[in-house]
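fyi for ur records
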Amino acid sequence: MLATAPAVFQTDRFLGYGVPREGRVTPGDHLQTVYALWLPGHQLARGEAPWLDPYSFQPVVEPRVNFAGWPFAAVYGPLRAALGTVAGWNVFVLLTFVGAGGICALWLRALGLPLGAALVGGLAFALAPYRVAQSTGHLLGPISMLLPLALYGVERRRAWLAVAALASIPLSGQVHLALGAIPFVLAYAWARGRGRLGLAAAGASVAAGLLVWATTLRDAAERPFSEVERYSATLLDFVRRDPGEFERFAYLGWLVPVAAVVGLGLCFRNTKFLSRPALAVLAAGTVAPILLALGANLPGYGFIWLNSPLGATRVPERLMPIACLALAALAALAIACVSETQSPLRARALAVAAGLLVVADLWVPLFDPLNADEGNAVYARVREAPPGRLLETPVLPPDAYAGSVYLYYAMQAPRERVLGYSTSAPPEAFDTAFRRLAAGRGRTLGISVVVEYRGGVPRRVTSAARGE
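which gave:
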């Protein structure tokens, strides 16, 4: 509730990030994510493959694999069925914070930390500002809970759990995070004497990542390095609470990093909870993502970007959940080491005080109440229109932010759509928007229904003869 306050108290609106405008649906990543989480259940109800999106960019490309539906469509689907699109999304968002904090605390308890210290560590991870920001619509925040789940599987020697958790990161479409998560979990497993388990998890994750790349990213339009320069963080972004440019927001807090340094020092002398090699992995897991988040502001990053899988990415901060987890764990270790010298009553008081300080240090109000429009009358007419493909105007390129609104309404009247919204759309989708439709050469696309938007609001639906 704290992470989403005060927006959470306006329950008739989406929890997300954006600037709401009265009378129109607010565009944003939350609409794209809701669509991705809705689609598997919708496909299953039709008896079709739940991993495919049969509607977007038709007939220009083959139905694309909807990797973003894994694994959380299984959670959102029942919530939507019971509560509706908006309330189902809001409850899903709240549950992701419970999951992230709870799983992190579970992993820390597996290390032998006292309950109070483990809960403070879970709180620090759940409230980590970058993770919260990436939970306002992007799936990176919710997916980050799989990181501590993989470490828990390593710690408990449950190979199936570690493999499933780590492989699900790239399989969910979060390939950039996987580029850091795979070596991080592998190094942690080696440091804990479970190298074979780590190799199994890493191998499965690499295979999952290659599958996503081959089916989705290989044919995506190339990203210029200018986009990396635009989203590269500066040193000020790590200490500034104001989100500013949202993708560059990487605030780490002030007290939590200090506590993490203290925890590293204390546990380096007292290895009761974690060995020195494992501590080194957590230290590297903090420093490396922070350095790489600097992107174009880091000397040599351009060369790395051109000559590594990072060349398919555009937002250098995507590895920051690893740093958020490592900082939370090191801060929890500091509390655990200090608690050992205290009486049980004082240890509990220390944990409570530390939890309050974590809240004061990390809480940043990042969620906004964003407008919805369930049961739109124009799209009710689309459902009754003759069979054929749908075109929404004005024509938007596939990566246009405003196109997320078209996805939202697509859930109300599902049918094949000539356009779509995706930052990893293939070149053919851009060609359709920029050339064929813009030049009036869309006669072979089978469009029978056109929805006209004015001011971001669907105003009119018209029918056209097939092929016109």
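Residues 85-110 form the longest helix (26 residues). thats all i got for now
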